[in-house]
TrEMBL record:
<dbReference type="GO" id="GO:0030182">
    <property type="term" value="P:neuron differentiation"/>
</dbReference>
<feature type="domain" description="Protein kinase">
    <location>
        <begin position="1"/>
        <end position="173"/>
    </location>
</feature>
<keyword id="KW-0418">Kinase</keyword>
<keyword id="KW-0472">Membrane</keyword>
<dbReference type="Pfam" id="PF07714">
    <property type="entry name" value="PK_Tyr_Ser-Thr"/>
</dbReference>
<dbReference type="InterPro" id="IPR050198">
    <property type="entry name" value="Non-receptor_tyrosine_kinases"/>
</dbReference>
<dbReference type="InterPro" id="IPR020635">
    <property type="entry name" value="Tyr_kinase_cat_dom"/>
</dbReference>
<dbReference type="GO" id="GO:0012505">
    <property type="term" value="C:endomembrane system"/>
</dbReference>
<keyword id="KW-0808">Transferase</keyword>
<keyword id="KW-0829">Tyrosine-protein kinase</keyword>
<keyword id="KW-0547">Nucleotide-binding</keyword>
<dbReference type="InterPro" id="IPR011009">
    <property type="entry name" value="Kinase-like_dom_sf"/>
</dbReference>
<dbReference type="InterPro" id="IPR000719">
    <property type="entry name" value="Prot_kinase_dom"/>
</dbReference>
<dbReference type="InterPro" id="IPR001245">
    <property type="entry name" value="Ser-Thr/Tyr_kinase_cat_dom"/>
</dbReference>
<dbReference type="GO" id="GO:0004713">
    <property type="term" value="F:protein tyrosine kinase activity"/>
</dbReference>
<dbReference type="GO" id="GO:0005524">
    <property type="term" value="F:ATP binding"/>
</dbReference>
<protein>
    <recommendedName>
        <fullName>Protein kinase domain-containing protein</fullName>
    </recommendedName>
</protein>
């Protein structure tokens, strides 16, 4: 297993088409559906916190910020540090975490995967990202992404379905081979 920090270099070598990128997202989504079913909120889901082996099997890691939540909501104390570029508006403004904020971060992770490891909002600092996200700005559709896959990303940033629902979307795509 290798940390995804080197993802862009490794993915260019290992990935032959977007279906393999979809499988990476499917693995992460499956792990997050499990965490969600156990009432855990990861709070730091990003490509840098995923381990990838040579067969492109992906494991979610770095559970240092993970919390057990009874009512699907965890409000962190003031002054808590969090990864702004992967954070939903309610995290940025109120440090309020939930499975829905993990879904937002999953949309950002999908973007990282389909850009072969680019940094989200690379041209902006954290304050600018806060402003832009608050104004409704979302990441662009990566070149390797079909309309169907971008719709999943978009849903992660808007409707924010549960991970088990996202997993169903991925399973349907795998069966239909439409992605």
């Amino acid at each position: 297993m290798e940390n995804a920090r080197n993802m862009n270099m490794r993915l260019e070598v290992l990935v032959s088409d977007s279906k393999e990128l979809l499988e990476i997202c499917y693995d992460v989504c499956g792990a997050m559906a499990f965490l969600e079913s156990c009432r855990f909120t990861h709070r730091d889901l990003a490509a840098r916190n995923c381990l990838v082996d040579s067969s492109l099997t992906v494991k979610v890691s770095d559970f240092g910020m993970t919390r057990y939540v009874l009512d699907d909501q965890y409000i962190s104390s003031l002054g808590t540090k969090f990864p702004v570029k992967w954070s939903a508006p309610e995290v940025i403004h109120y440090t309020k975490f939930s499975s829905k904020t993990d879904v937002w971060a999953f949309g950002i992770l999908m973007w990282e995967v389909f850009t072969l490891g680019k940094q989200p909002y690379k041209l902006y600092d954290n304050m600018q990202v806060t402003e832009k996200v608050s104004q409704g700005y979302r990441l662009y559709r990566p070149q390797l992404v079909s309309d169907i896959i971008y719709q999943i990303m978009y849903n992660c940033w808007h409707e924010r379905p549960a991970f088990y629902q996202l997993l169903s979307f991925f399973e349907a795509l795998r069966e239909d081979n439409r992605a």
